[in-house]
Amino acid sequence: MVSEFDLDLGPISDDVKQKAIEELRETPEVVKSALAELRELLGKDDKIYFKTDDDKVLIMYLRPCKFYARSAYELMKRIADFKEKNKAIFDNLLPQDEKQAFIENDVVNVLKDRDHKGRRILVVHCGAIWDPSKVSTDQMLRLFYLIHEAALLEEATQVNGVVVIMDYDGLGMKQIKHLTPSFSMKLLGFIQDAMPLRLKEVHMVKEPLIFNLVWKIFKPFIREKLAKRIHFHGSKMASLHKFIPPSHLPKDYGGDLPEINYSGKEWYPILEQHVDHIAMMNSFGKKA
User: Does residue 29 surpass a pLDDT of 80?
Assistant: First the structure.
């Protein structure tokens, strides 16, 4: 029986194929050439390990780099460096390691419905809903990491990309004191250097005036490419609707869809179903 929370593991539609051609140069000739070149680059590198005998795995890294093999190889090196630098957080990370954080705390959620451009929407509750004494910032990073590993299984998501809604409703000093420069460097290091997903937009919503304290911490580490994709809306959902129409948003964000009545608790079993894929991804990185 198919669940509404299942990953979309089917082949990409004709529309998505066309988008891949237009935006990512994904033609049979380019793909064949890029795969051969990337395998050659990885074959000459004795410092990092990535599975090279599976086209689908290599394409995960080629798509965000528009099938430029050298760029994909540099991305893979950055991923290996990031994982090595943050070994204490991500080494051999599996869903069961953060089961409690997923099922008992509504901090990170994924909307069931894609947006009008076929993108997955990740919702992060950074305000009153988040209790840092129950889910630490390192655990937040681990939740993001596990979700991104699962999302990479969806070819449509590889092509269409993802959107993040950062919900700061009820943000107070209880949360702010945990949003440190150290955390911001790790989070932005992951997003900007080591995440092989196409992050198309980040929307800050319901942020109170006190949010300015958070922004001062994060802003110095944000590079131009990401800065252009971050949008601030406050309580004005009409501003958010300029990017994602109400037809593709829940009532929580002024949309036409029903209010969100699910959380990480519903998504967690899906992660467990794909533990073999996550374990494989864990094996990638610096060679011992």
Answer: yes
- pLDDT tens readout for residues 126-143: 999 999 999 999 999 999
- Long-range contact pairs involving 9-18 (C-beta distance under 8 Å, separation at least 24): 9/153, 9/154, 11/155, 12/155, 12/156, 12/159, 13/156, 15/118, 16/118, 16/155, 16/156, 16/159, 16/160
Over residues 263-286, the mean pLDDT reads: 97
For residue 94, pLDDT over 90 is answered with yes
Q: Which residues contact 201 (CB under 8 A, 6 or more apart)?
A: 163, 164, 229, 231, 243
Which residues lie below 8 Å from residue 7, measured CB to CB, with a gap of 6+? 150, 153, 154, 270, 274
Handedness of CA 49, 55, 60, 61 (dihedral sign): positive
Question: Given the DSSP bridges, would you call strands 230-234 and 199-205 parallel, antiparallel or unpaired?
Answer: parallel
Token duo for residue 14:
């004709």
Tokens 């890029």 found at: 34
Cα distance between residue 86 and residue 69, in whole Å? 26
Give the count of beta carbons closer than 10 Å to the beta carbon of residue 27: 12
| Separation CA 127–CA 169 (nearest Å) | 5
Residue owning tokens 């950055």: 78
Structure tokens at 72: 């994909």
pLDDT of residue 1: 56
268-272 long-range contacts, CB within 8 A, separation 24+: 268/95, 268/99, 268/102, 268/103, 269/5, 270/3, 270/5, 270/6, 270/7, 270/150, 271/95, 271/102, 271/146, 271/147, 271/150, 272/95, 272/96
Q: What is the pLDDT of residues 224-259, one digit of tens each?
A: 999 999 999 999 999 999 999 999 999 999 999 999
Sign, CA dihedral 182-162-19-241, equals: negative
Confidence (pTM): 0.96
Q: Any idea which residue has 């990170």 for tokens?
A: 108
